[in-house]
């Protein structure tokens, strides 16, 4: 059973939308535009730019080998297409059931659930992009020939509704693709990644309408807005059609068995939700502490430096 304290922490940070002392003194820091590996990208009829950042896992856990990566794909989609999507999704009604990260109203809208379109009209607009751009890119980038879209959702951040989405992994998605819909000059803040346990490593991601941001399950990220409103379209991708059909996360099993802390932590999260099989929850929670999930350190009575 997860401690209610987890939810208290989440609630506090959602309600307190003002800037911390650190943020006031440092401002918003964006992903370093000078550090990515860039290349021109052509996928079918789509052409644009891929910027790729590599983030060493040893930044979170000393001596842990490997890296996470994130990519921004820009100029592949016309801004007018993003405008059309934005108008379409703004007219929908958004769910206010409990969010899986903080337990507060989610303000989400799902055009696709378990691989099936629930919004046929939006599906007609999105299907060509999904089949001809998103899936070919993800399958190639992650060497995952069977990768399949499981869910598509819209998240909205309006000033009277939601200002944050706390730091988290997308534990149920092998890869995540975020499509920017709102022009970045209409809000302050936005999507960020955090490669270390400390919030001073947060790097915000500037997404023009139509830009895509792609990351895998092992990159912690969140959203924080200080002003304005923001809509984003999110594609959660699983490693196979079978994983979509069963709602499972088979890509964790081998890595978790080999002791990979991210895989163990995410697999434990699935277990706690009743989705995946047996795991050593206490060991996995300690991995959560090690990878910088402060709430889990509090649960375990650990100090966190
Ligand atoms: Fe997420």
Number of domains: 2
**How much of the residues is beta strand, in percent?**
25-35%
> What gyration radius follows from the Cα positions, in whole Å?
18 Å
CATH topology group of the largest domain = Jelly Rolls
What topology, given as strand order, has the largest sheet?
1-2-3-11-8-13-6-4-5
Major sheet characteristics: 9 strands, antiparallel
Bound molecules: fe (ii) ion
Structural class: alpha+beta
Average pLDDT metric: 84
Could you give the distance between the termini? 26 Å
Backbone shape = globular
Search tags:
single chain, 305 residues, alpha+beta, nine-stranded antiparallel beta sheet, 13 strands, 30% helix, binds fe (ii) ion
Describe this structure in words.
- The protein is of the alpha+beta class and 305 residues long.
- The chain folds into two domains: 27-244, Sandwich (Jelly Rolls), CATH 2.60.120; 248-299, no CATH class.
- It has helices spanning 4-15, 21-26, 79-90, 120-141, 241-246, 251-257, 261-272, 281-290, 294-299; strands at 37-43, 46-56, 67-74, 108-113, 116-117, 148-157, 164-168, 175-180, 187-193, 203-204, 212-216, 221-228, 230-238.
- The chain has a nine-stranded antiparallel beta sheet.
- A hairpin with a 2-residue loop joins strand 1 (37-43) and strand 2.
- Helix 6 packs across helix 7 (261-272) and helix 7 (261-272) crosses helix 8 (281-290).
- It starts with a helix and ends in a 6-residue tail after the last helix.
- Mean pLDDT is 84; it is low at 1-17 and 297-305.
- It binds fe (ii) ion.
Provide a short characterization of the protein structure.
By secondary structure, this protein is of the alpha+beta class. The chain has helices at 4-15, 21-26, 79-90, 120-141, 241-246, 251-257, 261-272, 281-290, 294-299; strands at residues 37-43, 46-56, 67-74, 108-113, 116-117, 148-157, 164-168, 175-180, 187-193, 203-204, 212-216, 221-228, 230-238.
């Amino acid at each position: 059973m997860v401690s209610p304290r987890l939810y208290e922490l989440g609630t506090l940070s959602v309600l307190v939308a003002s800037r911390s002392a650190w943020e006031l003194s440092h401002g918003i820091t964006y992903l370093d535009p000078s550090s990515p590996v860039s290349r021109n990208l052509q996928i079918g009829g789509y052409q644009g730019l891929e910027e790729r950042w590599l983030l060493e896992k040893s930044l979170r856990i000393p001596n842990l080998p490997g890296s996470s990566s994130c990519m921004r794909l820009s100029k592949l989609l016309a801004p007018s297409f993003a405008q059309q999507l934005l108008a379409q999704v703004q007219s929908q009604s958004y769910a206010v059931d409990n969010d899986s990260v903080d337990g507060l109203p989610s303000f989400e809208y799902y055009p696709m659930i378990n691989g099936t379109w629930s919004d046929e009209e939006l599906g007609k607009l999105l299907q060509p992009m999904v089949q001809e751009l998103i899936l070919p890119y993800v399958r190639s980038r992650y060497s995952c020939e069977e990768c399949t879209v499981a869910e598509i959702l819209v998240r909205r951040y309006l000033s009277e509704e939601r200002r944050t989405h706390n730091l988290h992994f997308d534990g149920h998605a092998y890869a995540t693709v975020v499509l920017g819909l709102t022009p970045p000059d209409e809000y302050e803040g936005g999507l960020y990644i955090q490669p270390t346990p400390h919030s001073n490593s947060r790097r915000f991601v500037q997404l023009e309408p139509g830009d895509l941001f792609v990351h895998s399950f092992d990159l912690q990220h969140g959203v924080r807005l200080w002003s304005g409103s923001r809509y984003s379209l999110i594609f959660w991708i699983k490693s196979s059609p079978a994983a979509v059909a069963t709602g499972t996360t088979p890509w964790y099993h081998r890595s978790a068995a080999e002791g990979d802390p991210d895989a163990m932590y995410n697999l434990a999260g699935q277990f706690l939700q009743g989705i995946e099989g047996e795991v050593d929850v206490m060991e996995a929670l300690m991995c959560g502490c090690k990878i910088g999930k402060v709430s889990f350190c509090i649960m375990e009575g650990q100090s966190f430096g």
